[in-house]
Write the structure tokens for this entry.
Amino acid sequence: MTDSQDNRLDRRSFLAATAVTAAATATSFIQPLTASAETTFSLLQGASSGSKGMITAKPLPEKVFTTAALGISRKTHEEHYKLYEGYVKKVNEITDKLAKMGTPDFTKANATYSDLRELKVELSFAIGGVKNHELYFNHIGGKGGAPTGEIAELIKTAFGSYDNWKADLKATGIAARGWVWLAHDYTDGSLFNYIGDSQNTYPVWHATPLLGLDVYEHAYYFDFQTGRAKYIDAFFNVIDWDAVNANLAVAKAVAGAAKV
Ligand SMILES: [Fe+2]
């Protein structure tokens, strides 16, 4: 048995620890949603650089392939999934390197260049790549169109109408370089379409993403070439609102636990 296996928490312990963390520290934009909570983690504990989880890639939901009839092809999803798997591998590679650092030589920490800086910056990029794509793959392959359930009411309250939200998300997607998230901020209950230019840019603490729109070219170039607007139009037609409502339920549970 390896050292990491010795230190591996079982899934129940991890989820319990996650719930406590969510309540006690008012978790953030990169807080795991339901899907991410099912990712297999083994926490490496005791290292002076902290404890992070080793993860495994989740399978691509079969429902995503139904988008082919609406313009987002199987080929795009298959290639896109390979990128996601790459982020998973890099999370584990960087986590392993941090763990093996043991007690880092803190005197070598440097904001221009240092091993600690590079590993921690790129870890945030890789983790973002994992969580953003798990969010995205989990809510495409639905019936699209106007939202249903509680999210429909919240969108109407926040944006005035579904059409207003749709117009804002599309324009935000055109203005973004990588990601757009519809997120619920539990400090004030607001709903907002946030921009992320990269996997790890512009996190907003206490805001939990309910829906993610990937506007990196790899998400649409094969099907639409440079026609990002057409890709976003297709995206609206494949949203699984049941999945978005499930994310909302998790976000509201976090808000309730945080009592802010
Ligand atoms: Fe992507």
